[in-house]
Amino acid sequence: MSMLLNIVTPERRTFSDSVDQVVLPGSEGEMGVLPGHAALVTTLKPGELRYLKDGQETSLAVGEGVVEVTQAGVSVLTDMAILEADINEALVQEALERAERALLEKVGSEEVAAVQASIQKSLAQLHLKRRRRNL
């Protein structure tokens, strides 16, 4: 038995296919979803989203967003969804360092929140890339 997984960012539909299982970084911690899961809506925090299809696990770094689970499947609306293979570790590390420097210079709470969100997304990408390398 499988379920439909849709991952959508503001730029495009990143993924849409039947999967056997989804593991999400929810606001209350990691959440697993199997076919037939109870319906719910929750928030997504930056981290690693994994899905299992035909015995093959695939991971993406995701940003903030919303997850809706229904009998038909899982819909993920997020501001970032990047496959591990598409992550350029050096560029992400540079972006992280720039954001950390900017955080020290920013005074307004709106600017601080934006920089902190950028840092969380960079850390999610680096964690995914580096964890896979160390396996």
Walk me through this protein's architecture:
With 135 residues, the protein is an alpha+beta fold. It folds into 2 domains: 3-84, F0F1 ATP synthase delta/epsilon subunit, N-terminal (ATP Synthase, domain 1, Sandwich), CATH 2.60.15.10; 88-134. It contains 2 helices and 10 strands. Strands 2-1-9-8-5 form a 5-stranded mixed β-sheet, with no helix packed on it. A 5-stranded antiparallel β-sheet has the order 4-3-6-7-10. A hairpin with a 4-residue loop joins strand 1 and strand 2 (13-19).
Biggest sheet descriptor: 5 strands, mixed
The CATH class of the largest domain = Mainly Beta
Instruction: Give the strand order, joined by hyphens, for the main sheet.
Output: 2-1-9-8-5
- CATH fold title of the largest domain: ATP Synthase, domain 1
Written as H for each helix and E for each strand, in order along the chain, the element string is: EEEEEEEEEEHH
Oligomer, anyone?
A: single chain
CATH homologous group name of the largest domain:
F0F1 ATP synthase delta/epsilon subunit, N-terminal
Mean pLDDT: 87
Low-confidence runs of at least 5 consecutive residues: none
- How far apart are the termini? 29 Å
Q: Which CATH architecture of the largest domain?
A: Sandwich
- Helix amount: 25-40%
The backbone outline, from C-alpha atoms, is globular
Number of helices: 2
In total, how many domains does the architecture comprise? 2
Rg over CA atoms, rounded to whole Å, is: 16 Å
Structure characteristics:
135 residues; 5-stranded antiparallel β-sheet; alpha+beta; 5-stranded mixed β-sheet; ATP Synthase, domain 1
